[in-house]
Amino acid sequence: MDFYLNLINTIGIHTMLGLSAYLLLQTGQLSLAQAGFFAVGAYTAAILTVIFQWNIIPAVLAAMLLAGFLAFLVGFPALRVKGLMLVVATIAFSEFVRMFFYNLKWRVTRDGEEIGPDGTMGFAEIRYFSDNGWSNLDVTLFLWTFVIIIMVVVWWSDNTRAGAVLRAVGEDELAASSVGINLTIIKVSAMTVGGFIAGLSGGLYAHQVTSLDHHSFTVLLGTFAIAYPILGGLSNVFGTLVAVIFIQGLLVEGLRFIGDWRMILFGLLIVLAMNFKPLGLFDKQTVSMVKRAMRLKT
Amino acid sequence: MDEFFFEVVEITQSVWDGILFGSTYALIGIGFTLIFGAMGKLNMAYAGAAIAGAYVGLAVSMLFDAPIILVFVASALVSTMMGYLIYQTCFRFIPTHNHLAALMASVGGLFLIDEVIVHATRGSPLNFPAIFEDAYFEMGPFGIRGDLLFVFFIGLVSTVVLLYVLFRTRLGIATRAVAQQDVAAQLCGINVHNTNSITFSIAGLLGGIAGAMTAAAVGVLSPVMILPLTIKGLIVTVIGGLGSIPGAIIAGLFVGGLENLFLYVRGIDERDMYVVALLFIFLVFRPNGLFSKTITRD
Amino acid sequence: MKHLSKLIGASLLLIALSIPQSVISADRSVKVLGWGAKSGPLKSFGVNSEAALRSAVAEINSAGGVRMGDGSMAPMEVVSYEDSACKKDEAIAILRKTASTTDAIVGMGTTCSGVCQAMFGVLQKKVEDTSDSGVQMPILADTCIRPGLAKISEWAFRNVPNEITMYDELFKWLRTAYPNVKTFTGGSETDQGHSFITYTAIIVQMAVKHGFEWVGPSVPELGPKVKQGMKELQSAAKSQHWLMGDTNYTVQARKIKKQNADMVIVASHPFSACGFMKEMKRQRIKPKLLVGLTSSASQETLNGCMSAAEGIIIPTGFAPLTAEAKKANKIVANAGGFLDLHSAAAWENAFLVKRAVERAAIMGRSDTLQQDRRNFRNALASISSSKGLIGPVTRDGASGEASKPYVYVQVVNGKWKVIHDPSS
Amino acid sequence: MLKIKSISKHFGGVKALNGLDLEVEEGVIYGVIGPNGSGKSTLINVICGIFPPNKGDVIFQGQSLSGKPTHQRSKTGIARTFQNIRLFPSLTVWQNLWVARNSVEDINTESRFYRWFGKSNIVKKEIKEMLEFSNLENRADELASSLAFGEQRRLELARAVATKPRILLLDEPAAGMNKDEIRDLDSRIRNLQLQGITIILIEHVMELVMGVTDRIAVLNFGSKIAEGNPQEIQKNEAVQEAYLGYSEDD
């Protein structure tokens, strides 16, 4: 059981990470900076709970705010560029963040033990959950409340005018601006909200793995962040969830028993998925298909 | 004064080495730029294919203890093939307008190549035959590595050849035609798929040379090189200006030199931090790169 | 909405099916479950350790197996050997899976320090502390050599040499063996926690302690005590370090060349150690002595740069000296792995488990599993010394740390050759 | 209403607009005609602020628009359609109109949050009218990309109107239409005029222009060669000359 809960937690965290990129992708912006915001969230929340001994909830919320604010600041310059330029600009940003934490040393001594981030040695013993006797089930419930809140909010706003505007900007910036949409505001807000979500998931991640170091926040993480929504399809939020279950659940955990062929299959399946479902595993076609199936049943 | 002179010598020397080494980045950059110019898409699997080529070249040299030049030829040929395969698997069947899917597919390709290499070699670093390892020219306080000169030279030659092919031969003209206006090109009886796959193959060829040269310059071949090389390649492509071959070359040398400068002055921990920070600023204030000869479809 | 929940439910079910369920065989056996990196650049770790563990277990069983609590003999069984890809999240997943879905009494993995740091953090910190909801599963890691990891949890044990004494002895011996070596310098890879910390906190300090003169960038605090001036050293020597993925070592090599030391220390994993030593060769840097990091005392270094590594001296926890070491080496080689300081630990761990099981009087029934694990853990903690492949391993139960014997090996004509055994 | 003050716009060596002056009174339908490449579309793009002019200024309701980005100009009441239709293909017809609700009135009538995340009855009502106006009522939930060509034109017009413009710039709205559709378009345009929207109509299709407009300016090589009511223009020999050998249904 414990193991499945752990898997569900991982899925939850990655779903949030994916959703943070989902919003930005709707506006047509391909950003690999999510890894950076995730890292900021993770370290902030961990520092707050470990060094300042905050409660977890304010800690992750603070992490969320900080990451969001950072995203807001980065948004203005970054969104002046588009397409590949933006990809690389955001890679640059997240690498910068990674390097920052890689150099970050902040050791304090508590009852004889040195704790806190220790540069390249990483940041060990972020044991808030187990120190406070949280069972893995508690963690899952706690974590998924956030996941569900975020999913609901994003799903709901997808069907509001705001959601329509995001997509409109993504499809045709010129037309959008000539019906009076302020592109900068839209893009920056998308970036900021993305930052909030990424920061939150980072904060939760830190306590899930109990140990952070710069290896966890490489470009690969950023790639995964955009991979989920792309692989799942941008038609709605559940695409991202499906993609996360596909990657984290099936490819990473489910195929573990085939040993070292697993990671080979991993790449192969992504290639195939994109060839056969270029609009995502959970694209409109799938949705309508599933809908039809349901209608037949009920 | 004497101390000052020493520093000057050292810094010049470091930058110079960096510039020579940058020629490998430049070649990778050219590959990215070619493909981007032709399709307006990003082939993330490119550097992976390059290194894979080098591996096969190495295998050849191990099996029939072939002369070093043959190693280069082999790796060039192999990654030419891989370039073609990548086009067929990750781009050919994905709708042209769907950039995200193609990007994701090539990321999958990257994972696949990477893992296949690991599977074949257990990820162990392998000794790569160096070219003129003993050619180390000392000129007064300065020293120059013969093999790097050779690398530099090969880089220049292949660039010149490439430019000739692109701007003087019918094939090159067709490629550029497709790059600028695929529909029109099709109407003129150019088969877009053929041209694209040729572009990928040419890029692959360069990649093979680049991979082999990098391996020869380091003297060791290991899978941990792939990701850094990919990122450097992207950075170079962007600084050079998308689709600009001379841009990519200059950017490659520039990045190489800069790296060593920062390394010398600020040390390893901050080297990459400054490089990416610079890149970010560069992107924001000169969004079109050094040579903004962007040839993309939109 | 409905269809969606069903869809998710379905896929979760699919996963559940695709994951091997808890293996509970009717006949009694001592079950262990191992994991290590079987994919990714560090694949060699997992492959070698798996080969070592499995063949060691086979050895034990052919010798009659393990004596259980009721005196009967039962075979030892490796439930499976998972691929943790040297990634935190995956290792934690495997750990929890082992603890919750299998009846293995001990988890045996892994080799990557960063991963152990995370896994141990998930475990319960103090055994008797009921307020701590951490996982209660004994872990016996093959290496995870980064200093002070096992103290993170009382459930965590590892089988490593004590690096401090190891390098202490090394330089003590070098001092006498190479009297004409006076000065030294070196570099390390800063993105690999273990390499970097060992280099700055231990290797350099020990060299200084034994009278070698540091001729690298000036470090006022540098002294004969461990960790002395570590921070100063780290900041002063910045520009002669590198990263694991680097391709260009010209600057670092030249700096070291300028310092023209008798002894050069290359403290990094084979990936970059090879690149750097090749660069040294190109720049004609020929120190009287080349000293390496224990992680490089492996086949990979020979694959990567046999000729450039010629003459490098490295302390290691394994070398085929003794009879059983030779024997083990052959067996593991036949099983398709290499026995090196990492995988040798896995081999020894199998025998350590045997001893602990016999001491703990394990019943090996599924109903007594939790108790068995606890007893096993206590027994393991109470073992103060065990028999290693190249000599007795002293263990400190309280901290879960071990102190393996070690020897000094050197690359001579492209082969690892034992040049000194401090215990003899 | 709208004053074009000696606007010049160069692309490299090409003078797309060359010191052009126009004045459009409130409430009129103002035609702009001229051979291909005479700078008609450039004029629209300059008015909408997509191209900054090299020289000159655009005065709208007495205030200069220079330096104002496109979206602000739209808020001041300038709307447009595109020569090559630019809808939001993956949004439904309804959403296409919904997105366009950025007019000052909308902003003032609804709270910011509600405007972005709510769906008020006013919105529903007005969009419904909009759909009826462009008789797309029964296609409201179709994707814009699935519409027929004519419908897409109508939707684009409706989307422009949905921004509640004071002045509406139509860039060759009749291109590729058959006679009936053109007649239909004609009545739509008049209808808009009745709603008090000033209209600048750029068109090649003479029967439409001559029929519907109150006043016409003729451009050639970026400058105005004639202005007047349709009858005058038809007589003007400068125009004849410019159009020599120019076929209407081109």
Give an overview of the whole structure.
The complex is a heterotetramer of chains A (298), B (298), C (424) and D (250). Chain A has 298 residues and is mainly α. Chain A has one domain (2-226). Helix content of chain A is 73%, strand content 2%. Chain A has 13 helices and 2 strands, in the order ααααββααααααααα. In chain A, helix 10 packs across helix 11. The two termini of chain A are 32 Å apart. The model of chain A has no long low-confidence stretch (mean pLDDT 91). Chain B has helices at 2-39, 46-63, 68-91, 99-121, 146-168, 170-180, 182-187, 192-218, 226-240, 245-266, 268-285, and strands at 126-127, 136-139, 142-145, 220-221. With 298 residues, chain B is mainly alpha-helical. In chain B, strands 1-4 form a two-stranded antiparallel ribbon. A two-stranded antiparallel sheet of chain B has the order 2-3. Chain B starts with a helix and ends in a 13-residue tail after the last helix. Chain B has one domain (2-121, 143-285): ABC transporter involved in vitamin B12 uptake, BtuC. Mean pLDDT of chain B is 85; it is low at 293-298. By secondary structure, chain D is of the alpha/beta class. Among the domains of chain D are: 1-21 and 46-67, no CATH class; 77-201, P-loop containing nucleotide triphosphate hydrolases (Rossmann fold). Helices cover 38% and strands 24% of the residues of chain D. Chain D has 11 helices and 10 strands. In chain D, helix 6 crosses helix 7 (149-162). The two termini of chain D are 32 Å apart. The chains are: A mainly alpha (298), B mainly alpha (298), C alpha/beta (424), D alpha/beta (250). Chains in contact: A-B, A-C, A-D, B-C. At the A-C interface, helix 1, helix 5, helix 11 and helix 13 of A face helix 1, helix 2, strand 4, helix 3 and helix 4 of C.
